[in-house]
């Protein structure tokens, strides 16, 4: 097609099968590496957010360590199934 000396060409229309074959799929190793990087980044972001909250609240190192110890204990109780609705004194129905 020619409009005032400029040649316009339409892209070649490939069948759907050719387009699917041209897709690039990542390797299993690549997925594993990406997941590892994501996990490390998420952990460091979580630690940074926690540190910012502690700083904004004006907590001392002793207070933050004490709070983290309590969280670990509660998580341990949750993991072993001790804190359930039936025996949790804080549960309100």
Q: What this model shows, in words?
A:
With 93 residues, the protein is mainly alpha-helical. It has a domain of 38 residues. Helix content is 59%, strand content 4%. The protein contains 3 helices and 2 strands. Strands 1-2 form a two-stranded antiparallel sheet. The longest helix is centred in the middle third of the chain and has 30 residues. The protein is elongated and about 70 Å long. The N and C termini lie far apart (75 Å). The model has no long low-confidence stretch (mean pLDDT 76).
SSE blueprint:
Layout: E1 2-3, E2 6-7, H1 16-21, H2 28-57, H3 61-79
Antiparallel strand pairs: 1-2
Give the strand order, joined by hyphens, for the main sheet.
1-2
H and E order:
EEHHH
Largest sheet: 2 strands, antiparallel
Number of strands: 2
Structural class: mainly alpha
Q: What is the tally of helical segments?
A: 3
Portion of residues in beta strands equals under 5%
Distance between the termini: 75 Å
Radius of gyration: 28 Å
Overall 3D shape = elongated
What's the rounded overall pLDDT mean? Answer: 76
Report the uncertain regions. none
What is the helix fraction of residues, given as a range? 55-70%
């Amino acid at each position: 097609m020619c409009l005032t000396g400029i040649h316009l060409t339409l892209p070649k229309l490939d069948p759907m099968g050719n387009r699917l074959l041209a897709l690039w799929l990542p390797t299993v190793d690549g997925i594993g590496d990406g997941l590892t990087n994501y996990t490390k980044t998420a952990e460091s972001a979580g630690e940074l957010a926690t540190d910012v909250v502690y700083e904004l609240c004006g907590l001392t190192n002793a207070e933050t360590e004490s709070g983290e110890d309590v969280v670990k204990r509660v998580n341990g109780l949750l993991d072993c199934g001790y804190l359930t609705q039936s025996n949790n004194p804080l549960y309100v129905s």
